[in-house]
Design goal:
This protein is mainly beta. It has a single domain, classed as TonB-dependent receptor, beta-barrel domain (Maltoporin, Chain A). It is 5% helix and 56% strand. Strand 21 and strand 22 form a beta hairpin. The longest helix has 15 residues. The chain is globular.
């Protein structure tokens, strides 16, 4: 049945399904028009405006593969954060990372980064109102009052710069309204999940040129896995979040000023990280816990609903289960119209991030085991043992960025040029705790004791084959990053061809400097610095075959900065990644704008691939970063929207990514031999297929409107590690194919006391899929674990607008 549904979705998308784009309120000049399905009597699909090339353009005329989603649509569907976006855009993966409330792994077309450290660069750039969000550890925050989200696929190195080698996510805030508006919304769902939010638009304040908007939200939820050791508000998956967004706009003649402030503070317990596989020796050792007075040892490949999850004594001596994060930012955009043909724009940004996390990666209660104890006459004693946990705190980062743009036109030419500066400082202190399970005959060889003590321990403990060694490694590091860039892009639309043809060329030069220090258990502290530069370029050509059909081709390059490995024991630099991408596509609106069909095919050659090879041992969890070689990525995406009759919209998409490693150089840790293992390397965080199909029907009830929306999405299986040789449980934590069915029914525009009321009921994961969503292989420690998809959820919501 699943295969049938998927094939149906893929076939329909290929024949003419929807550009997954839903627009924002009419009246905002830079936003798209309302979604056609939101109105009765509409005669066709309406235009969508995006800023994929840093200026306002119609989605159907920009030669870039981009999906646009309106904030109105996301809000109506109760999407809280960016992790929901892959259900709506092809070739996109966003997974929330275990043990964190705000860290995400983001991939587009097979390119991204899964390392959340304070010094690791992203492969997909995330931007909020034009300001780059440098840390993936702070990428998950509540989406409050967005005008739209744009998913740009493929390298965006010319206009967006470094670390957009896979693509970019643009989050655009809703600007203050010209008139007074007040909205409030509340919702309640199972798992005791509820929220309240409101927004006030002042309109123009008095006779001044200023207008202000203030939005706030409070959201709470109990966990969706029952931890018998805690109350529901501390169960895994529980969260309490407060979010504020402020917008201020001043229209000062030729100068427009936009200031934005965003703040997100959340506490809670990350989703349950469950042990799914262990070595026989590891299972035998921890399996004795119940007989020694501890909790029973739990390991299962199937999602559990009732568990035990122990807390941890943090760096301040407090026993905790939960974590907390704080993300905030300021942006100031100045746009000065020097003339009809020239606009000067300045974008200034300051952001900071803080995280204090209980790692909770043991998936068990208070376990007991026989451990090495030099104070005991037998050199052993029964103590608490821990597969792996800790307190990552403080992890913090702050950044400043400044961008200057010149946008203009002259005759048949339009251009954009600019300068960019970025400065960042970040640090992380990871207090880890783990029990290493060691054969008693290897204690001396591993350096835990002398040979004499080992012999004495064996003599005093006859028959004991494995012994635990409790370890508390401290991993600490920090550093700075500075980037400078100059860029430009020129487009030519010759009048001789009625401006049907466009040729665009662009280039960007970037200079990066980095410093790093490695401390904690590393003594003395190691310090290093490195620098890189890059020249990225773009050439694209498009032609309007008819007023409603455009074909295009583009070649572009991208660059992901190199750096210093923060999780190594010595200063170890790695080189930048580079990508050369070729793309061809078609954008069309057919049958009197009843059908919108967009298609893109791509081929990307990716060099000096940075591969994070997760490792674990007596020093805790580490990540080895190597430039492993070359990979070729190729595939296609199709998106479409069909309006067969007024009031009914059917939309969908399909994406395909094929990954072929050309070289993948691997140094065997046992033989020290370097070999090309490209034939066995796995694509990571990259399902081969993504697909979706959705339908929405709006019916006029004689004033109020009834709306029904149903969405089905699919992704094929995906790996989290490239090599089974370094991650022996890689197949155990492979994420299987996932289906998701979501629906919402609402009645809208109900007149109430001078305002309009909307009431909705919704359900998500309606088929209650139990898919493994994120896995970590602790390899040398003897186990692997994973988080699983949230169970079926459902609820009600109500919104009133004045």
């Amino acid at each position: 049945m699943k295969n049938f549904v998927f094939l149906g979705a893929a076939s329909l998308a290929a024949l003419g399904f929807s550009q997954a784009a839903y627009a924002q309120d009419a009246g905002a000049s830079t936003a798209a028009e309302p979604a056609p399905q939101a109105e009765t009597g509409s005669t066709g699909l309406q235009d969508i405006v995006v800023t994929a090339r840093r200026s306002n353009e119609s989605l159907q005329s920009v030669p870039v593969a981009v999906t646009a989603l309106s904030g109105e649509f996301l809000e109506r569907q109760n999407f809280n954060d960016a992790t929901a976006l892959p259900r709506l855009a092809p070739s996109l993966t966003i997974e929330k990372q275990p043990s964190s409330l705000s860290a995400a792994t983001v991939y587009i077309r097979g390119i991204g980064n899964q390392e959340p450290s304070a010094l690791s660069e992203q492969g997909v750039g995330i931007y909020l109102d034009g300001v780059y969000l440098a840390r993936s550890a702070g990428a998950v925050f509540d989406l409050l009052d967005l005008e739209r989200v744009e998913v740009l696929r493929g390298p965006q190195g010319t206009l967006f710069g470094r670390n957009t080698i896979g693509g970019a996510l643009q989050l655009v805030s809703k600007k203050p309204s010209d008139d007074f508006h007040l909205t409030a919304k509340a919702g309640y769902g199972n798992f005791d999940e509820w929220y309240v939010r409101s927004r006030v638009d002042t309109g123009y304040i008095g006779n001044s040129p200023f207008k202000l908007s203030v939005s706030a939200q409070h959201r709470e939820a109990d966990g969706f896995v029952n931890n018998t050791l805690t109350k529901g508000s501390q169960d895994p998956g529980a969260v309490k979040a407060d979010t504020v967004a402020v917008g201020l706009q001043a229209d000062l003649g030729k100068l427009t000023v936009n200031y934005g402030f965003d703040y997100d503070y959340r506490t809670g317990t990350p989703g349950f990280f469950q042990l799914v596989a262990t070595t026989p020796e590891y299972a035998a050792y921890f399996g004795q816990s119940a007989s020694l007075g501890g909790a029973p040892f739990m390991v299962s490949p199937d999602r559990q609903g009732t568990v035990q999850q122990a807390g941890f004594v943090d760096r301040n001596g407090k026993y905790r289960y939960g974590s907390k994060t704080r993300v905030q930012g300021h942006s100031l955009t100045l746009a000065y119209e020097a003339s009809d043909a020239l606009t000067i724009k300045s974008i200034t940004g300051y952001r900071k991030f803080y995280q204090d996390t209980i790692l909770n990666l043991s998936g068990n209660g208070e376990l007991k085991g026989l451990v090495y104890d030099p104070s005991s006459p037998t050199l052993t004693s029964v103590q608490s043992v821990i597969p792996y946990t800790g307190n990552n705190a403080p992890q913090k980062q702050h950044q400043f960025s400044q961008e200057l743009q010149l946008l203009g036109s002259s005759g048949d030419f339009s251009y954009l040029g600019g300068l960019y500066y970025f400065k960042e400082k970040a640090s992380e202190y990871n207090h880890q705790s783990l029990t290493s399970v060691v054969p008693v005959g290897y204690l001396a060889a591993y350096g835990f004791m002398s040979q004499a003590d080992q012999d004495a321990l064996i003599a005093a403990n006859p028959g004991v084959a494995q012994i635990g060694v409790n370890l508390n490694p401290l991993q600490a590091f920090g550093g700075t990053s500075e980037s400078k860039a100059a860029f430009g892009q020129v487009s030519w639309k010759p009048s001789a061809l009625d401006q049907k043809f466009e040729l665009t060329v662009g280039a960007r030069y970037t200079k990066d400097k980095k410093t790093a220090w490695l401390g904690g258990d590393i003594d003395p502290v190691q310090r290093g610095k490195t620098s890189f530069d890059n020249f990225s370029w773009l050439v694209s050509a498009s032609y309007k075959v008819t007023p409603d059909v455009m074909v295009y081709a583009r070649a572009s390059t991208g660059y992901r900065s190199g750096g210093i490995n923060p999780r190594a024991g010595v200063i170890n630099t790695f080189k930048p990644e580079k990508a050369m991408s070729y793309e061809a596509g078609i954008k069309s609106e057919l049958f009197d704008r009843r059908l919108r069909l967009n298609f893109a095919a791509f081929l990307t050659d990716y060099d000096d691939l940075q591969v994070q090879q997760f490792a674990a041992g007596m020093q805790g969890a580490t990540s080895l970063i190597v430039n492993a070689g070359k990979v070729q990525l190729k595939g296609f995406e199709a998106e479409a929207t069909l309006m067969p009759v007024d009031g009914l919209t059917i939309d969908g998409s399909v994406g395909y990514v094929d990954t072929k490693y050309k070289t993948f150089m691997f140094r065997d840790p046992y033989t020290d031999v370097v070999d090309n293992v490209a034939d066995v390397a796995k694509p990571i965080y990259t399902p081969k297929w993504t697909a979706r199909i959705g339908g929405e029907y709006v019916h006029d009830l004689g004033g109020p409107l009834a709306r029904l929306r149903v969405d089905y999405s699919y992704r094929s299986s995906m790996y989290f590690n490239a090599l089974n040789a370094t991650t022996p449980f890689n197949e155990n934590i492979k994420s299987p194919a996932d289906d998701n069915l979501k629906a919402r029914f609402s009645v809208e525009e109900i007149p109430v006391g001078g305002g309009m009321l909307e009431i909705g009921v919704w359900g998500d994961n309606l088929t209650n899929e139990k898919t493994l969503t994120y896995g970590i292989d602790f390899g040398a420690l003897g186990f692997a674990g994973a988080t699983f998809k949230k169970p079926r959820s459902y609820g009600i919501d109500a919104k009133i607008s004045f």
